[in-house]
Amino acid sequence: MVGTMVVATPDSADAATAHAQPNTIGVKLFGRGSAQLPGLGAALPRLVRSLPGPIPTAAWDFLAITSAVFAADRFVLRAGSPDGWTRSIGLRVSVSDPAPWLPQVSSLTQALRFLTGDIWHLEITSGGVPPPDVIQRPHPYDAVCLFSGGLDSFLGALHLRETGGRPLLVSQGSPKEISPQQTLAAGLGLASDRFEARIRERWRQPYEPSTRSRSLLFYGYGIVAAGACGIEHIVVPENVFIAINPPLTRRRIGSLSTRTVHPHLLSILNDILAAVGLRMRINNPFFATTKGEMLAQTRHSQLALLASQSYSCGKGKRGNGQCGRCVPCLIRRAAFDAARVPDGTPYLHELEKSARNDDVLAARQAVARSVGIEARKLERWALQAGPLPTNPEVRNAIVEAVGRGLAELEGLFGKVQWR
Predict the structure, then answer these.
(1) Residue 374 lies in a domain
(2) For 49-107, what is each residue's pLDDT tens digit?
(3) Paired residues of 283 in beta bridges
């Protein structure tokens, strides 16, 4: 049973007609919204014209789908669901060419369910707009690198540069992250090699803040950019602990923890891309590497300075900086400590005074339970976050790296004088 129906279409009249129906939200896709009619992504058709080549229709339609998913995720509040979290969302999205996507509705629904924890009823229809005209021009890029301004994305782009690559950085222009993105791209010598996409949703607030689907939007940008460049290699750099995101406590199981770069999600998405004829793959080269190992393996004359200027916080938008005690901040601090790289990040909270913080307590409990844990139990814990690859070598590498990530946290906590 559908709780809320969302109809996303670039046709204003169709969106308005849908919006007038009971229990239905009509959304103007690639259009400017208002208090009367929701909309998002008005700037995208203009922004993609800065890319160096024509955009494949399937890539543009994937961006339409991910934009529609993001709209539904923002406009349908979890507080209105029976359990305060799991929503039942019907989503009808118009694309330019629905034919290749219709057989993929089941796989897309599976990906959405895994990523957001909601029950989705997805429909893909005609009525979308074709990709904007983009003039073909030469470019030097051999990879697309998703570039959030976080420490992992900086280290991933730096790794590509160190190995002789020339990536096109792809960013979402969020207010808290634009400055780090610009600073880090300049530090990498890639200031002019960054595609900054921006999507602004507009309706009536409040919007749902959890936005588990935001990563799909990021992938949509990357796929459009890769298609425009004729590139098959899309890199999403993420350390193993955040990629797997095993539940630190029982109440954090499932979509209550993010699954943005979980290998199960990437596997589903890559299968979908292949099925609709897009010859590109999303790859996380650090799927079995800890954040500390990522930091220790890279070289740059200003590594400590630039790394400290990256933005990793999961809760910093609530303050004016990086909190220093959410799970991403804890893993970040442990990485600097493990790699023996000076951490110049101006955290908002001292770790010593955060012993009673919920995230700190959960992380400390997980570390305490991990001491002397058997490999099989460690694997079972990692599996609580989602299916792992069936290849035994890959699976074991991931599980072992999760254990090393816990050891980095243990090393950090062992040096803290808790108050």
Answers:
(1) yes
(2) 999 999 999 999 999 999 999 999 999 999 989 999 999 999 999 999 999 999 999 99
(3) 235
- CA dihedral (162, 294, 115, 265) positive or negative: positive
Quickly list H helices, 172-235. 175-187, 214-229
Strand ordering across the sheet containing 167-172: 194-197, 167-172, 143-146, 233-235, 281-283
The number of domains in the chain is 3
User: DSSP per residue over 343-355, as a string?
Assistant: -----SS-GGG-T
Is 308 inside a domain boundary?
Answer: no
Beta-carbon contacts of residue 279 (< 8 Å; ≥ 6 apart): 232
Task: Give the pairing type, strands 24-29 and 39-40.
Answer: parallel
In a domain, 291, yes or no: no
Query: Please, where are the H alpha helices in 42-94?
Result: 44-47, 57-75
Residue 418 counted as domain residue = no
Structure-token match 């949509």, residue found: 220
Enclosing domain of residue 393:
313-413
Sequence-separated (6 or more) residues with CB below 8 Å from residue 354: 324, 325, 360
Dihedral in degrees, nearest 10, Cα atoms 182, 165, 140, 52: -60
One domain for residues 271 and 234: yes
State yes or no: pLDDT of 410 exceeds 90: yes
This prediction has a pTM of 0.95
